């Protein structure tokens, strides 16, 4: 049973002419009993992804 489904998550900043793609079409699911870690280089979108999933990013 999936406790969390993320389907094509995208987060873009900036204006429409030159958007910065912080996260682009990320999909995954976390099932009951699984332990998940998100790893990557600095600036790869780990924190932005987590904040977007929790609804904590303020959009202008």
UniProtKB/TrEMBL annotation:
ABC transporter domain span: 24-57
Full protein name: ABC-type dipeptide transporter
Highest taxon, organism lineage: Bacteria
Gene Ontology MF terms in the entry: ATP binding; ATP hydrolysis activity
Enzyme Commission designation: 7.4.2.9
Catalysed reactions, semicolon-separated: a dipeptide(out) + ATP + H2O = a dipeptide(in) + ADP + phosphate + H(+)
InterPro entries (alphabetical): ABC_Ni/Peptide_Import, ABC_transporter-like_ATP-bd, P-loop_NTPase
GO cellular component, one term: membrane
Enzyme class: translocase
Coiled coil: none
Subcellular location: Membrane
Similarity annotation: Belongs to the ABC transporter superfamily.
